[in-house]
From TrEMBL, chains A, B, C, D:
It comes from Castanea mollissima. Belongs to the bacterial/plant glucose-1-phosphate adenylyltransferase family. It comes from the Eukaryota. Residues 66-332 form the Nucleotidyl transferase domain. GO terms for molecular function: glucose-1-phosphate adenylyltransferase activity. This is Nucleotidyl transferase domain-containing protein. PANTHER family: GLUCOSE-1-PHOSPHATE ADENYLYLTRANSFERASE-RELATED, INACTIVE GLUCOSE-1-PHOSPHATE ADENYLYLTRANSFERASE SMALL SUBUNIT 2, CHLOROPLASTIC. GO terms for biological process: glycogen biosynthetic process. Pfam families: LbH_GLGC, NTP_transferase.
């Protein structure tokens, strides 16, 4: 399975193939030249016909289209990614992970977003097609999903992020953009992309890479960069324990020893349209990955690559534990690292029509509660309770993530038989106790169950029985059935 | 102010004016004859052009269009109706009152609804235009709002429900319906209208009136009816203390003494299209009201009027107290009279994109909690907490309805100055206690406020200070500002 | 019938009533002060709750909300306005008149529009609620329709445009706008409102009035203004043949004799929110009209009123003839005064799902053809053919406007009986000739009809037979039935 | 490239693997048992969360979900399928091919449609996600697109239609359906699927196959069937010239010689949900295709397979010529085989907001004209002119399909340089003549071009120069540039 993670550390293919500059690319050049001198509003849709045949660009971000990758961290977030892309994982009760990046785009006035998806993409595609509706300009939609597809020219899957962009360029390049903003879709952070756009244009860069201070935790897959005082990238390398790969620009050969100027890439690239067309079609037509191939290649051929340093909250969910911690933080108002209530840069997601949450005789502390829950005489503490969760009498939930349900059940249609032939309905059963666990959607937890990681296991796979343990956190699988009296 | 309540007890005007049967009505007759013998799907939209030029009828309810009145009980629900129609009052946190009737239509497969509005209609019109979107067939929408309007022929407001229907007939009659279902929009109940349609058609009635057992509490404005064993209405009268008006059909002169066969009208009429056209245009062209004029008139000229007896939950919100009690019942799972979680006949409303509710160190019992609330270290019991409600540290809320807010505030933009020049933000302030009260939307309750009806007042108007008392319940007005330390 | 035409020449009521500055208006002032110094994105919705609880403003037009009046020219465009507001009249086949002004707003990045309607508003309200969907930010919608409504405070209709704004202020003022842009909804022109906003802010005006060179044809109802070299309005007067009313600012007493500096108002006002609140509530609480009362009043109390001169195409449709001419121009590519194909400032309307137009053996020259027409063996020249028009064999149409139909008919359901008992279907019958006529929607023109104004009548009313003649143009009424062989 | 054509003639794999009947399938059985006895409305959504958490089924088609395949005939319709699936090909100006099948579903009251796509799916996915919006019940949408995706279990593409259904079953089976209706998405016909559903249920069949009289032209890939007098399928075989494969049920061994009872399959299967689960998971877990593997396999193990004979218009577009002929027929009212104007079973597609078509001094006969065209002084005869087509002065178009453009161009941004350095804009150039050709979207045809198949070539590939010839029809490729003076 090829994950479009923008980070495969494969060798560079700095091939320069012959001129494909035919009519199309000439046309594009002329278009973009035209574009830079004319008023913002342009004319064009592409093969993806829309209801309104026109599109508006707003001055601030005129001409920037975002390319969001739905995949990433798939294996590291297993089993949450068993049936869904990383971007589709529910977070903080009402959201899915990808909502963070799409909301950043909306709040940055970027209204053309392409989402490229491939792995377990069914629920992510469905979410992206329906959410944010009415937020774009025209029904053409804010988000255009391009699922991996076969064609006569390419019969294979996308072979990496750069390959995916290359194969979808024909769709995206008809749109009169001046730059593409490439974004991993499974990171949680708030960034006003208008700032990186401004910095990019001011520096007349070919590529600008958003980067974090290297001292912070980081996703090593995106590589490291050293910049000079003008934030120009002097060196870009992928960290590799045994044998660090290092791509040094002509200008310098300094090592990334100078910690003050060394940053880790966030996998976010702002690239001029002309540049990306040339890089992917002419210079590196076989490169599959940005971090290991296209970016170092661009430096090596003398392109101007800038760094854009970002010092705020950023979380890449690179493990079950990181995902768990992020949810835990959302329940604590005091030190909320990522503010889901922020009115200046709100989070958008699928609007829903759910009943109010009904709480009968429960004690709830430090928790986030989604819509449409039914919480009966239970105790809930430090927990994220997702939509339509049903928690029954006597249950005690602490420091956990209960993802809730996609479904309301009529009690008569209870499904899932335990040993004694008694049905177990969706939700958390009577007198069950759960501590430090993640319960995925539609799980059916019986009565008197204890999910407390009794033996303090750190890592364990018991998928056959419906759960695994990762970093000491019990993860109950989607739609799992946990019989009455089970003790974990 | 003329309220379209279907119930004004004015004298009948059984005028039969001359034949207006011209081309149009001939055409209508032919259409409806055609209609009864042909397959369900017909062709027509009316002057309200829709995106899709076609409409589908489903067999069960083929040819029935609903006419919902947004007004009613306005004065009796004051001050909740100060700025809104009765139908727009928020209920059970996530809903508005009119959602109940519209959801009944949706669940009865009626997909053409006209909403006739006049009083304080701004927010109701807005809600009806946006909610339920995507639920209808075609963007023409489930609900077509017809606000009162002036024309060259009629310069006045709608003079009552019958007048409103008469004046909008030209819009509604182009649609190929066979019957209209007239519905007050401010009642709370669940009814499968397919049953009344079936009964109506089986009995070949001209009009069928839904009615409750007379022993129940009822809205006297809709009148009373006595039926025979075939449920034919023998007598229809408006209760009037001093001088009961009684309309007796030719067939009988029995009084409504026989309590077993005497019912109170729910103000719900299923009327054949031909019948309503004739009644409003020919027989009673000056009648303004159904209960006092059109219905008794129809009986008096020998039309077949049937009763349809309804024995389930029905609440007409005819007082602040009734509204309060209905909310209180929604917080108690055991004896929930109206099930907002019913999956077989769900409630529909405006889909929303709200953050999850954040509960930090709160104790919540027997309450209904809307989306996007922030509840900090407070105690909430037996309370309906509406969307975006912010309840601050130390607050204690019991047996109340907190309607929440339309708005998120940045704390810096606090508005509303109290005597000491300290801003009071939207929400409930620190250490405030509220018991048996209704707090309307966007109210700003300060710190250390006591809203407990200390002096046990039953009725009182203190609108200048932002509240009234009705039936012993304190009602804080929309956007009211209650200074720190206030005691009510 | 009170038409919200912004132009009733009634006397001024320069009453200054006492301070209503209570909590609310204090709050508003603070809000708008805050607003001017803070980043664009604010927080607030108003009582009209929306799906997404946040709204975005774009820098260019930050804080401007438009107020569009749907009424105007009603009597002058009769009978096209018999059942609809002027704004709802179909124009150039696919559009309604109000689309021009709303499209100007969209193309000027104004995404909050209030439409105030009262006269014959049913179809206009319906159009405004459905069209442009998905073009706004959030389902709150681009356009918020506020139909005239009754309340406990005001039982009457809107008494004029100023009264309408005053009564809806409570809805509109919660929104964090800095200026309101007041727009008549029945004019045809293209204006980038961002330019008037810029001029207004640069001049620090209280009010800016858009105006045309006085030598042009103009709607006299909006008044005339004289400006100095800085475009400040020195004098504003309503032209009144007998006795010119003249409001002279303190600064000057020059007459509007200096033709070079004398302009006619377009009825477009950009007014600061604080200013409008004060004018309508404090200074002139009984003024009903802008042109005759509020604007001259504002000048008289020393407010800074600027002119914004507009020199491009503008048509106010002040007669059937003007409406007819405008349609005729849309069929001529060479001298198209108003370009409906303009890709830089496109026209938006209700997206539709219509079949392609089917043309069998027809000769069509210099015509505009809407969607879903069926044109069989006919000759069409210099004609606007609206949606779903059906023109039958042998028909000859010249220099006319055929508005088409809202409806497809099954041929079996033909309606409308002629003398010989033969049904006349919607559309234009066989061998019928039409020249210089307007045929309103859903008309049923029989066979061998001649609509050619045979006797060259200039003005005539034959409404009983389904047509009138105005300025030599025959206007066939909506849904009229014209029997076979009729000659007009 | 694997095309999901339901027709690959590969050998059967009648493997019966062991019982996978675990919890899930038990649950399903119970659900469907429940389903058969309960009222229509059920409760459930699946992993594809929707805005409204409930779904309605209508009695007639209760419990039927459609599965539409977007791919098919890809190679046979090349080059129209170079960048798009067969289902996405424009037809009759305003539609795409897949609209026919989706409209059949809508008109048959089937409101849950899964579209499985894989080949060149970008534009088809985009169309399916946007079109028909507001036609479903709830924003969950009428159509749920499931693009081919990678997962940890399956890394490959869908290997055929049966494999695609198997891999998406986990998504589709949570929905409480009783039968799946499997539909090729690239056929043009009108069928009321309610009739096949009724026949299927009456005969208590496991599978019902829609079939055409064998004497008609047919797609041989779907196979042939012989039925008895009760329409039970006695024999099913794939036609294979050399060696006919024949699957004979136990009941009989008659050959399909009896022409009267021999029919050709339309590739439409109505299959009980339990049946399909068992067939794909238990009996034939490795079968990739329905026609060659699953259907004959089902017969061989004794399942009850019925035929449903369909005698109306059906066109499978199995060649460029067939596609061309279908378009030609749409221009002839007299013998229109497929009525795009049918008001009883209308065609639905993406609603659009296009300008009216402007025709200046043109002569148009027997043609279908899409929205937003500009036709200047040209002659058009027997031609389908697609949306936004621009045909310039002096052009003569006969018996052709001009697909139009996705785009409006500003004349200044003309693109595509011919030899002389003169730009060629999108559309048909001055004095160009086109006869019996298909011009795909966004093509740029210069001046004085002759596309008349001068040499009467039957088959030819000149893709480098922007066209091919198939069956004597010239097909100009999407976005091709044809220089001035070119003669084909």
């Amino acid at each position: 399975m090829v994950i479009l993670q923008l980070s495969l550390p494969t060798p560079v293919n700095p091939q320069t193939n012959g001129a494909i500059t035919g009519l199309t690319s000439t046309c594009q050049k002329r278009l973009s030249k035209f574009h830079s001198t004319l008023p913002p509003r342009l004319l064009i849709t592409n093969s993806h016909e829309s209801q309104y045949p026109f599109s508006l660009f707003h001055p601030a971000n005129e001409g920037v289209a975002a390319i969001v990758f739905g995949d990433g961290s798939e294996s590291r977030l297993y089993p949450l990614t068993k049936r869904r892309s990383a971007g589709a994982i529910p977070i903080a009760a009402n959201y899915r992970l990808v909502d963070a990046v799409v909301s950043n785009c909306i709040n940055s006035n970027i209204n053309k977003i392409y989402a490229l998806t491939q792995c377990n993409s069914a629920s992510l595609n469905s979410h992206l097609s329906k959410a944010y509706s009415g937020l774009g300009l025209g029904k053409e939609g804010l988000v255009e999903v391009i699922a991996a597809y076969q064609s006569t020219e390419y019969e294979g899957w996308f072979q990496g992020a750069a390959d995916a962009v290359r194969r979808c360029l024909w769709v995206m390049e008809e749109y009169p953009v001046s730059e593409f903003l490439i974004l991993p879709g499974h990171h949680l952070y708030k960034m006003d992309y208008q700032k990186i756009i401004e910095a990019h244009r001011n520096s007349k860069a070919d590529i600008t890479i958003a980067a974090l201070g290297a001292s912070r935790d980081q996703d090593p897959g995106f590589g490291f960069l050293t910049v000079n005082s003008e934030n120009q990238v002097l060196e870009f390398r992928l960290k590799s324990e045994s044998k660090p790969i290092s791509f040094v620009s002509e200008e310098t050969s300094r090592k990334c020893n100078d910690i003050a100027n060394c940053y880790s890439s966030m996998g976010i690239y702002l690239i001029n349209k002309d540049t990306i067309v040339k890089l992917l079609r002419e210079h590196f037509p076989k490169a599959n990955d940005f971090a290991s191939e296209v970016i170092p290649g661009a430096i090596s051929i003398g392109m101007k690559v800038q760094g854009f340093i970002f010092n705020e909250y950023w979380e890449d969910m690179r493990s079950i534990e990181a995902f768990y911690q992020t949810n835990m933080e959302s329940t604590k108002k005091a030190n909320m690292a990522f503010n889901f209530f922020d009115i200046e840069s709100p989070m958008y997601t699928l609007p829903r029509c759910l009943p109010s949450t009904l709480i009968t005789d429960a004690v709830i502390t430090d928790s986030v509660i989604g819509g449409g829950c039914i919480l009966n005489r239970c105790k809930i503490k430090g927990t994220v309770v997702g939509m339509r969760a049903k928690i029954r009498e006597g249950a005690v939930i602490e420091d956990s993530v209960i993802m809730g349900s996609d479904v309301y059940q009529m009690e008569d249609i209870q499904c899932g038989m335990n040993k004694n032939g008694i049905d177990i309905p969706i939700g958390i059963g009577e007198d069950t106790q759960i501590r430090k666990a993640i319960v995925d959607k539609n799980a059916r937890i019986g009565r008197n169950v204890l999910i407390i990681n009794k033996d303090n296991v750190q890592e364990g796979n018991n998928e056959a029985n419906g759960f695994i343990i990762s970093g000491g956190i019990v993860v109950v699988l989607r739609s799992a059935v946990v019989p009455d009296g089970t003790i974990v």
